[in-house]
Amino acid sequence: MFLFQVPPPTRFDLNFSVAGIRVRVHPLFWVIALLLGTGSTNLLLIAIAIFVIFVSILVHELGHAFAFRRFGQDSYIILHMMGGLAVPESSPYGENVRLTPNQNIFISLAGPIAGFLLALVVILLGIGLGGQLVFSVFFRFLPIPAVVLPYEFGMLDRVFALFVFINFFWGLINLLPVFPLDGGNVARYTLIQTDPINGLRNSLWLSVITGAIIAIAGFVLLGSIYMAFLFGYLAFQSYQALQYRF
């Protein structure tokens, strides 16, 4: 899928490593992070939002990368305009480790789980520091970035709330059975195991239907053009895959 393919390297890429895992940040990642973080006119809040988005997506992809490593498969991470990818690396002989369906399911779930754990750590830290995090996120939870929380909440509360919002809310969204999200991969490998003949077709139809529903709900209920475009596009791509494969 074009939007989720590995982007070619540029001279503006940021390159570094975490625990021996190579990370490359494409310049368009910062553009999208900036657009998502513009729920405020406060430059400090925008900068914080970009930082939180960066850390959250990196932790998510590290979850995938460490899961790959657990099964003997090296990988590298790319942060790009649509989020991030943990990409398996070929061996010197041009081969990848052959993973079982259950191993692929584990790898797919490892990303969202890493995000949930990060959200939990932030919640506990917020409680320990005596902030209003639990109140602001769970009792006045809004389907918008925490940078636009009411001004009675302090800066630290806003940072914590944004961490929880991104890692919890988008972690759940990423578990929806829509390709190529993690939930879509889980659905694919699960259905293929239960029905080897029709499993792939059924997973694609599930992706089409779920993607269309989320696109409509995102636009109507949340007023999010981004969610409507993203899930509408993913539903269309799954439908195209159905036409091509079957």
What does this structure look like?
A hairpin with a 2-residue loop joins β1 (14-18) and β2 (21-25). α1 (27-36) crosses α2 (43-70), α2 (43-70) runs antiparallel to α3 and α7 (199-221) packs antiparallel against α8 (225-245). The protein is of the alpha+beta class and 246 residues long. It is globular. The chain folds into two domains: 2-175, no CATH class; 176-246, no CATH class. The chain contains eight helices and four strands, in the order ββααββαααααα. Helix content is 61%, strand content 9%. The chain has helices at residues 27-36, 43-70, 101-128, 133-139, 155-174, 182-194, 199-221, 225-245, and strands at residues 14-18, 21-25, 75-80, 83-88. Strands 1-2-3-4 form a four-stranded mixed β-sheet.
Helix fraction, binned, reads 55-70%
Whole-number radius of gyration?
A: 19 Å
Strand content: 5-15%
Q: Helix and strand string, N-terminal first?
A: EEHHEEHHHHHH
Shape assignment? globular
Given the helix and strand composition, which structural class is it? alpha+beta
Question: Count the strands?
Answer: 4
List unreliable stretches of 5+ residues. 138-152
Number of domains as seen in the coordinates: 2
Oligomeric grouping of the chains: single chain
Distance between the termini: 18 Å
The description of the largest β-sheet is: 4 strands, mixed
